[in-house]
Amino acid sequence: MSQPCVSSIIGTGSYMPEKVLTNDDLSKIVDTSDEWITTRTGIKERRIAADDQATSDLASEAARRAMANAGVTAEEIDLIVCATVTPDMFFPSTACIVQRKIGAGRAVCFDISAACSGFVYALQVARHFLNAGTRQTALVIGAEKLSSLVNWQDRNTCVLFGDGAGAVVIRATDAADAPGRVLSTVMGSDGNLVDLLKVPGGGSACPVTPQNIDQRLNTVHMEGRETFKHAVTRMSAAAEEALKLAGLTKDDISLVIPHQANARIITAIADRLGLPEEKTFMNLHKYGNTSAATIPVALDEAHHEGRLKPGDVVLLVAFGGGFTWAASVLRW
Ligand code: ACO
C-alpha cells in the first residue's frame, strides 16, 4: 500500500455475560426499587460476569466475534488497544492477556484508561497508528467487569453498572471512500474534576489495607448529580465539534451511539442536537453502564440489527471519569 490515510471499521463484535441481574433482584440487596431505577436511569437489568470470568475473557470473546465478522485471522492483527478501568490486574495489560487468549502473536498490545470514554480514545489512538502507516490491522476493545469494582451496599452506584465487552477491527486503507471509515474525532479531559467520579483506594495513592477495604475505598465513588450535568454539557459540545470537524451538520446524522449511562442524559443530548428518538441508539435498559464497553457493544448491536446502512453518518459520543469526553464521526 502506498500512503494509507484512512482507518476503516471492517468488523464488530460483542460479548455479554449470561447472568442477568434485574432491578427486582437488586431491591433484595439494597433499599431500592424497579420504579426508582427505571425512572431515574432507564436501566431494567444488567449482566454480571461469572466468578471465573475476568475482563480479558469478555474482551477475548468480543474480539473473536469482531474478527469473524471482519473475516480476519488473529495472525493479521498487528495492534490491540484495550480500553478498560477493570483490568485483570495492574500489569500486564489486559490487551496482552487478550493477545495470548486469541493467539494474535504479531500484535503490539496496550491498555487505555479513560473510564467511559475509553473506547473512543482507544479508537483514536489506534487510528493514528494506522493512518501513519506503522500498523495495518487493529483490534480496538472496550471491556469491563464493573461488578468487581462496585460497592454492593451503595444504592447510589450499584444499580448503575454492569459487565460486558465490545470490539471492532479497523484496517488502514488508501481508499478514501472505504465503508466504516472514521471521519473525525475530538477528545477532551478535565483533571480538575477527578474527585467527582473515582475509585479512591487500591492504587499507589491509597494502597490496599484492611482498613480501607472496610471503608470500601476500593469501589466506585460518584457525585451523581454533578456528573450528570457535566456529561450532558460535554457530550453535546463534543458531538457538535466532531461534526464540524467532519464538515457535517446535525441534519447529516443517521444514528447517534452515545455512552449508555442514563437514559435522561441521552435524551438531553438528543434534545440539544435536535434529534428524534429513532436516531438515538439505546440499549442501557438491558445492560446498564458498562463503561468503556457501552459504545462498541451498541455499535455491534446496531450493526447486527441492520440499523447501519452503507453511507450512514454515525456519531459516537462518550463521557466518563477524569473527567474525559470524546466524540467520533463515522461514515458507514
Ligand atoms: N434507589 C432508591 N433511591 C436512591 C437510589 C436507589 N438506587 N440511589 C439514590 N437514591 C436516592 C438518594 O439517596 C436521594 O435521596 P435523598 O433525596 O433522600 O438524599 C434521591 O434518591 C435522589 O438522588 P439523586 O442523586 O438526586 O438522584 P438523581 O436523579 O441525580 O439520579 C443518578 C442519580 C442516576 C446517579 C444520576 O445522577 C446519574 O445518572 N448521574 C450520572 C452518572 C454518569 O453519567 N456516569 C457517567 C460516567 S460513569 C463512569 O465513567 C464509570
Can you describe this structure?
The chain has 332 residues and is α/β, with parallel strands linked by helices. It has 2 domains: 6-173, Peroxisomal Thiolase, Chain A, domain 1 (3-Layer(aba) Sandwich); 181-331, Peroxisomal Thiolase, Chain A, domain 1 (3-Layer(aba) Sandwich), CATH 3.40.47. Helices cover 33% and strands 24% of the residues. The protein has 11 helices and 13 strands. It has helices spanning 23-27, 34-41, 55-70, 94-102, 118-131, 155-158, 210-214, 224-245, 263-273, 284-287, 294-304, and strands at residues 6-15, 19-22, 45-48, 79-83, 108-112, 137-145, 163-173, 181-189, 197-198, 221-222, 255-258, 313-320, 324-331. β4 (79-83), α4 (94-102) and β5 form a beta-alpha-beta unit. It starts with 5 loop residues before the first strand and ends with a strand.
Instruction: Look at the structure and name the CATH superfamily of the largest domain.
Output: Thiolase/Chalcone synthase
Query: Radius of gyration, Cα only, in angstroms?
Result: 19 Å
Task: Please write the string of helix (H) and strand (E) elements.
Answer: EEHHEHEHEHEHEEEHEHEHHHEE
* Ligand inventory: acetyl coenzyme *A
CATH top level label of the largest domain? Alpha Beta
Runs with pLDDT <50, length 5+? none
Residue fraction in strands: 15-25%
Beta strand count: 13
Domains, number: 2
Structural class: alpha/beta
